[in-house]
Design brief:
Elements: H1 2-28, H2 32-55, H3 61-89, H4 98-121, E1 132-134, H5 138-155, H6 157-162, H7 165-181, E2 185-187, H8 195-214, H9 218-238
Helix pairs in contact: 1-2, 1-3, 2-3, 2-5, 2-8, 3-4, 3-5, 4-7, 5-7, 5-9, 8-9
Length: 242
């Protein structure tokens, strides 16, 4: 029973890692929509991973390291590959053009920052106490914002055609890179003292699961991602450190 307790959260992590690899392969094959949804599903599994580990009291050093490796693939490398191919296919960026190399540099730096972010996260002494991250987590950056933004572009081709994506995509990746390696206090999705916040978190998460499972309403996912990013940064600035 003891081994089974640790197997459950690690299984969620393993499946998230495999879906991240599948997203990379799918993007390479040209199915950007499925590749983006696979990253969204990785996010859903990441929530189940953390929740099951806490409920079963099955946290371990191995689980923490395994989770970080899976997160780097699913929310670092996979979104980077997705954005690069979206720039080529949706943004009509020409291969080996100056715009291509700028985008390539942006996604490469994003992956590097994600790796640094995850390495720092595992150093407990570097973390703010309580339910806070130091910097925006890679799951929010790569899993929540990047995938949903690409899905909205795919679902709304007229909007994508009207945007200078050769500028927007690199800027998005560079901004998320800076947020990940920053020292900003960013709230975790944990139980709070406020009933209103807890109910709001539950409703938001339920909506995200519905969209992910049914592969619908990426606009909701993007809206939630942007709202949580802005609200989280503001909360980290106006509240006192624990």
């Amino acid at each position: 029973m003891s081994k089974l307790r640790y197997t459950i959260p690690n299984s969620f992590t393993a499946l998230s890692l495999l879906l991240g690899v599948a997203s990379i392969m799918t993007a390479q094959l040209g199915d950007l929509e499925l590749a983006a949804w696979l990253i969204v599903w990785c996010g859903l599994l990441d929530v189940m991973d953390g929740l099951s580990a806490r409920l079963l009291k099955a946290t371990s050093d191995f689980g923490a390291e395994f989770d970080s490796m899976a997160d780097l693939v699913s929310f670092g490398v996979a979104p980077a590959v997705l954005v690069l191919h979206a720039g080529l296919e949706v943004g009509q960026i020409e291969y080996e053009s100056p715009q291509f190399y700028v985008l390539f540099a942006a996604v490469a730096v994003f992956v590097l920052a994600g790796a640094m972010r995850l390495a720092r996260f595992n150093l407990v002494s570097e973390q703010p106490s309580g339910g806070w991250f130091a910097g925006v987590p890679i799951t929010a950056a790569g899993g929540g914002l990047v995938s949903s933004f690409i899905l909205v572009l795919i679902y709304h081709g007229d909007i994508a055609a009207s945007l200078p994506l050769h500028l927007h995509l690199p800027v998005l990746m560079f901004v998320l890179t800076l947020l990940m390696i920053s020292r900003l206090r960013f709230p975790k999705a944990v139980k709070r003292n406020s009933l209103f916040i807890n109910i709001s978190q539950g409703i938001i998460i339920a909506g995200v699961y519905y969209c992910g499972i049914t592969r619908s309403f990426p606009e909701y996912l993007l809206g939630v991602g942007v709202f949580m990013l802005i609200a989280g940064i503001i909360a980290g600035r106006i509240t006192r450190p624990d």
